[in-house]
Every structure is written in C-alpha cells, then in structure tokens.
What does this fold into?
Amino acid sequence: ARLWLGSWNYDLSGLVNNNGDTLDFDRDLDVQPRSRKLYGLVWNTAPGWWPDVTASFTPIKAGGRREVDSSTTFGPVVLSQGTSVVLADADLDDLDLTLRYPAKLGGNTVWAGIMIKRLNGLIVVRDESDTEEDRQPVDEVFPLLHLGLNIPLAGALEFNLRGEAVEYDGNQATEARAEALFKLGPFGLALGWQRKSYDLTSGSYQIDAVLQGNYFAVNALFK
It folds into this structure.
C-alpha cells in the first residue's frame, strides 16, 4: 500500500446554468482555485480474486468576485441598477474509490475495473450586498469505467497512465492522469498531469466544469 499527498496546480474553466441563466467561471465570475491538495491510497493486493484498490480525495474549493452589468440575473439573484458585484463560492469534495484487476502485458501491467465517484458540497452565487443569494447543494454519484497502465522504466523509475469515463442520462464525467513515479526505498515522488471533467445536472443547476493542470506528490510505502 502507498499513501500519498500532493499539490495540483490546476486551472478551472466552464460554466454554470440555472434555469436558463448562465455564468462563465472565467469571464463572468473570475473563479480561482483556493485549495490544491490531493490525498490518495493505492493498495496492490496479492494475486487472487480480491481486486487492487485505489482511493483519492480532492477538496475542490474555488471562489470569484467580478463586476457585472445590472441586467445580469442568475436564478433568484437579480443584481441592482448600475454596475454590481457578483460573488461565487464552490466548496466540493471529490471522492473516488476504484476496484481494478491487473493483467501482465509483457513487462507492463494493465488494470481494468470500475471507479465510484462522489461529488458532494455546495455552490453559492450572490451579490455583494447579500440581498440576493442562490445556494445549490451538490451530491452526485458516478460509476466510471477504469483503465490503467504501468510501464517500468530504468532503475526505480516508472510511468503510469489511467483514465475513467461514464455517460448516462445526459450526465458525463471523465478523468485522465499521466505521471512519472520515482521510488527511493519506501518513499516515492510523482510528477504528472491530471484532468477532471464534469457535465451534470444537479437540482436546477447544469454544471460544465473542467479542471486540469500539473501536480506533484510524495508517497510512502507500507508492507
């Protein structure tokens, strides 16, 4: 088993729609990440019927503040006459649990399985005067198909690829990750790139969000 802690330098793009009123994360809200932490566990079991297990926790915390024209509305939030300031905050937990089975392909290892993802938290859009506020709880569970590939390189260096995807009832979720992992005794250092994409309906909200960027992580091996 390996426990790891990382930092993800991601950019956030996309939009949120509430009953026909749409705000762009960048253009309308200037939303920026406020948390970049990554936590994870990888447990490779002995050969047998029990699957290998990976789990991860990513707190998605972001917020923005931008002046907008008074004609802008978003659900029940109606901005006052003249230029107004709209504030947005998202506080979500992205939790993943993946069950997968390995197979040897030459000197490499291929995994196939299923990821269960839960996206849980709250999105708040309001005007700066606090007279109007729109709060949308989010609690969605996705079953995603999972594929992974491990390629041992020279010495203690290895390369890992993984991807997950699902589409159902108009909702979509995808993930992709590529990393180089250097192992030094019981410790490891990973450098990589990750992308998470959500296109879903939650209550009156339609959310289309993409998070992508480089990350690094340190991990420790337990036997």
About this structure: DSSP finds no helices and 14 strands in the chain. The chain has a mean pLDDT of 89. The first strand starts at residue 2 and ends at 18.
